[in-house]
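Researcher: Go.
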Amino acid sequence: MIQSLLIANRGEIACRIIRTARAMGIRTIAVYSDADAKALHVRQADEAVHIGPSPTRESYLVGEKILAAAKQTGAEAIHPGYGFLSENAEFAQAVIDAGLVWVGPNPASITAMGLKDAAKTLMADAGVPVTPGYMGENQDPAVLAEEAAKIGYPVLIKAVAGGGGKGMRLVEDPANFADALASCKREAAASFGNDHVLIEKYILSPRHIEVQVFGDTHGTVVHLFERDCSLQRRHQKVIEEAPAPGMDAATRASLTASAVRAAKAVDYVGAGTIEFIADGSEGLRADRIWFMEMNTRLQVEHPVTEEITGVDLVEWQLRVASGEPIPVAQEDLGIDGWAMEARLYAEDPAKGFLPSIGTLELLQFGESEGGRIDTGVYEGAEVSPFYDPMIAKVIAWGEDRDEARERLSDMLADSAVWPVRTNASFLVRALEHHDFVAGTVDTGQIGRDGEAMAAEPEPSEATLESAAAALVPLYDAPAFRLNAPPVRSGWFQLEGTPREIALTGGSEDPAASVLVTEGGQAWLLEPWRKDGAHGAAGGSGAILAPMPGKVISVEVEQGQAVTKGQKLLTLEAMKMEHTLTAPFDGTVAELNAKPDQQVQVEALLAKIEETK
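Model: Structure:
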């Protein structure tokens, strides 16, 4: 068995791996960048090594620094987690060449499945059904547009080296193909260093179904059943569950057999996921499920599989990497209950899901029987602009789907984070959406109904009345009268907006401000000050950088007339492209942004003067 393990990752997955390794008596070594010097994974590991500046390309993506840290600490093995270098065949080979144990698949397997076009060809040859599309070498925009027309719209443009929803665009109208292709290639080049794309038929009523597979060095490959990851936003998973709703035994048997066949085709070792797309218009049917891609690593959503099978997938990874066989046979694996996972992010759904950075002054997670929290942060930690803004994975298990869903909803609603914004209330609304409750959700659900889910939540009047009571002296509160309404009210500011609230009580020691929490959301309530200190007036037309980043493109010129919602510029930040639009009809009165310009948070990029 491995005795010492370096984790070439950060955040919640590094903490997750440390937890299992420690239980197995394995010494753990963390690596960290400047921004992560006080991170939770650094605190939890037995030893930690600094590997460079905060940007990933200068730290977590530099294989030489990871190997040097392993040599410095006498690590016996390297676990890559997911993301970063986890699916980099060259790095995997370098680890092996250095005489270390690579906790992952063989480099050849990573290479075989690393490019989506080559992987599809390989899968078709292995008898695994694949979606129709174009996977040719010719990347001329005109050729790609012609192939898209042959396939028939809508189509999906996908980076061949992509993952995590990056380098992917849905095109429903041929007129939008050229712009979508350029944006997709640009994002793919920035994220993966490879701008080649493939074109795929976009499936109507698509459901994203994936199968967890596991192989060992003794020739055995097993599956641990399926997960449904259909609830997505911009091709990124939002809520995952296992098993998949509506999956009958015959379809499951066909699907999992295809997944095992796919893994065996590349002599797969370790944890991997075979991703399929299903046409859910007539329910789940074996003849309407096609291979999409294989992720040659552990998945973010692996906890839901662990919860329904009772298997610790990280323990299996470490045992198989040590040369041991998979500890159970396929017939010994079964499904127990239901599990769901929600990705709690530091982002503001009401503002286009822009990432929210800052100090986690308050961090409380809701609790439930069958609940689990996988996190890489703590109260007082910083959410930086350099990495994925995930705060935690909130997981709930139940005897059946309804129980798991209700428990997860309660855990999210009982969470409280401040002053960083989160998507908790959005997730609660998603879990309560009628299609999700019915188990018929597809990947387009948020695209259709996301605006209502993302709307700015409001605290209830009862919650506001209770909070206001903590801000007024007891003698200012109305006298208590049985079965009578409050006799007076007061003015307060909720997040800077004046608001009249009924007074139903008071405090002997009134506070200057109080934090209101409800439904996973938090608001600051303060006494209203008529001097204007309650916040700046809205509608200024100032277009500010929501976070540090790089200007990718500028679509307007100074003096140009614009309409509400018109694209002004695109900013790349936190590994994603963010489009900034005109808040109302007007004229570009000021323009300070230029392509390739690095900007800081709240930098004035442009100013729109409203048309009178």
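Model: Residues 531-539 have pLDDT under 50 and may be disordered.
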